[in-house]
Each structure stands twice: as structure tokens, then as C-alpha cells.
Design a protein that fits this description.
With 192 residues, the chain is mainly alpha-helical. 71% of the residues lie in helices and 5% in strands. Strands 1-4 form a two-stranded parallel sheet. Helix 1 packs antiparallel against helix 2, helix 6 crosses helix 8 and helix 7 packs across helix 8.
Length: 192
């Protein structure tokens, strides 16, 4: 753990380099998106560093709980408190329609990349957490669908987002990727 500043410094440098591009996200998302992006970048860099150097970090359970509460609140802000307040009166119930549009090149590349990557990546930590909390296959399989469905329906009912089946697909995929990463996480994180 002597050189833990390396991944922290790398995160700061990468974040600074891409800052001019990522700030465009604040035009249609809450500015907390910048904090979430930096946090995710830092966690990924730390994880890669710890895995490559075969080190393990000890994290207090209370710290982990507080971190997940703050992360969850940040995501709720991103999902429901957008500064531009566009009219969300559309929904997509056709699987892969939005994903296909983003992959076709008919949308701005950065918006496409961010939407696809964020819809998957931002839910990976929840998959890791759920895998740590339960080994019940039914809960792991269906709870992500239930939680994301509640988010999508709430966005529709509150007019703070659009109901999109592709968001459900991508978010649940994030949970499942989190499950797959648990063996790696167990190598680098020990919960006290």
C-alpha cells in the first residue's frame, strides 16, 4: 500500500484530461455527475492497481455502507434532478431500439458512449454489493429487474425521465457484470 498515490494521481490526470469533454454532461445532467465520474474512475484505477500488484485493502463495513448510501443518493440525483428539465413524454417498450440508435451512429458519439456505458457501469457496484449480501440465485436474478423497473416507472410517473426498456436491459446487465466481478473484488477487498 506504499504506492497507493499512483492510482489516485492517475485518476486525477485522466479526469483532468477529459474534463473539457465530460463537463458537457452537466448541460443535461445534474453537476453531481462530475463527482460520480471521478469516484468511478478512482475506484476502477485503485482496483486495477491492487489486482496487478496483488495487494488487498481492508475496508470497514461502516465505511462501505456510508459509501454505498452516498453513491445511491448521487445516482438518484442523476436520475431525477436534471437541470435542463426537458419534457419526458416518450417511452420505449421495444427492446434494443434505443441501444441500436446509439450504436448506429445516428446520435452524437459522446452522448451514445456515455448513455450506454453509464447505464451499464453505474449499476455494477450494486451487483457486487448484492452478491456480497446474498447467495440466493432467485434474489440475484430478479431483484435487479424489480429495482430498475421501479426506477423506470417512477421516472415516467414523475415526468423526470423516460420509461425505456433498454435502460432496464443495460442497468440489469450492470448488476450481472457486478456478480461476475465478485471473485476479483474478493482478492483486492477485505471487509472488516
Amino acid at each position: 500500500m506504499k504506492k497507493i498515490f499512483i492510482p489516485i494521481l492517475m485518476s486525477i490526470v485522466i479526469f483532468t484530461i477529459f474534463f473539457p469533454i465530460t463537463t458537457t454532461l452537466t448541460t443535461y445532467l445534474h453537476p453531481v455527475v462530475m463527482v460520480v465520474l471521478f469516484f468511478c474512475l478512482l475506484v476502477v484505477n485503485l482496483a486495477i492497481y491492487l489486482f496487478v500488484t496483488k495487494q488487498q485493502v481492508l475496508i470497514r463495513k461502516s465505511f462501505l455502507i456510508v459509501a454505498f448510501i452516498l453513491y445511491t443518493l448521487s445516482l438518484l440525483v442523476l436520475l431525477f434532478m436534471r437541470p435542463s428539465e426537458p419534457a419526458y413524454d416518450n417511452s420505449n417498450l421495444v427492446p434494443l431500439k434505443t441501444i441500436s440508435m446509439y450504436l448506429s451512429g445516428n446520435a452524437d458519439w459522446f452522448v451514445s458512449f456515455y448513455n450506454l456505458a453509464a447505464n451499464v457501469g453505474l449499476f455494477v457496484p450494486f451487483g457486487v454489493l448484492l452478491a456480497f449480501l446474498t447467495s440466493n440465485i432467485l434474489i440475484r436474478a430478479f431483484l435487479p429487474f424489480a429495482l430498475i423497473s421501479c426506477i423506470e416507472i417512477t421516472q415516467l410517473l414523475t415526468n423526470r425521465g423516460s420509461l425505456d426498456i433498454d435502460d432496464l436491459i443495460l442497468n440489469v446487465l450492470g448488476f450481472y457484470i457486478g456478480y461476475a466481478l465478485v471473485p476479483i473484488v474478493r482478492k483486492i477487498v477485505k471487509i472488516k
